[in-house]
Amino acid sequence: MVQKAKILLVDDRPENLLALEAILSALDQTLVRASSGEEALKALLTDDFAVILLDVQMPGMDGFETAAHIKRRERTRDIPIIFLTAINHGPHHTFRGYAAGAVDYISKPFDPWVLRAKVSVFVELYMKNCQLREQAALLRLQLEGGGGKSVLGDTKEPAGLLAELSARLAAVEEQAEALSKQLDDDSADAAAVATAAHLERKLTGLRRALDALEPGTGSGAASLPSQN
């Protein structure tokens, strides 16, 4: 069963959180509320999120300060942040948002369709990265265990296991390629395009590792791509 991605919604006004939930419910993912920057940072200690929607104007710790804390943590620094703001102070204010680590900066009232489309891109990228990590972890487990009972279900010979892993990786590669084409066609945000390119590089590294394990290609202990 495919696990749903978690989306963190951060706003001090309950009515704004309710509106965001109404807009994003169609994505059928897990929506997590936080009514302050402190509450958001606490949620990020225990859960992994595909994307964060962060209100700029909040009492106490505002959106800029919250984003700075998120980007300083190794666990959370790569999570995409979309800033939401009810006011527009011009280019300087927008630049401050990007400087704080946001991938996008949207002024209220925003188009629900546009917001949902932007969030869906980051959710899909997150899901592809999760699939890639699972494939790499599976391969590492088989290499370290030297065969035996496969976590895929049955006891398999190394050649059969490699073939099954290769087929699963091919499916992820195909989905990643389709996503990259979609981003190119839609003239998506540069951050989303860069994230997709990073995913493709990781897939290429895993494919090379699998190819190196094929009989007759040399060492059977090929190095696997980093998961950072």
TrEMBL record:
<dbReference type="GO" id="GO:0000160">
    <property type="term" value="P:phosphorelay signal transduction system"/>
</dbReference>
<protein>
    <submittedName>
        <fullName>Response regulator</fullName>
    </submittedName>
</protein>
<dbReference type="InterPro" id="IPR001789">
    <property type="entry name" value="Sig_transdc_resp-reg_receiver"/>
</dbReference>
<dbReference type="Pfam" id="PF00072">
    <property type="entry name" value="Response_reg"/>
</dbReference>
<feature type="modified residue" description="4-aspartylphosphate">
    <location>
        <position position="55"/>
    </location>
</feature>
<feature type="domain" description="Response regulatory">
    <location>
        <begin position="6"/>
        <end position="123"/>
    </location>
</feature>
<feature type="coiled-coil region">
    <location>
        <begin position="162"/>
        <end position="189"/>
    </location>
</feature>
<dbReference type="InterPro" id="IPR011006">
    <property type="entry name" value="CheY-like_superfamily"/>
</dbReference>
<keyword id="KW-0597">Phosphoprotein</keyword>
<dbReference type="InterPro" id="IPR050595">
    <property type="entry name" value="Bact_response_regulator"/>
</dbReference>
<keyword id="KW-0175">Coiled coil</keyword>
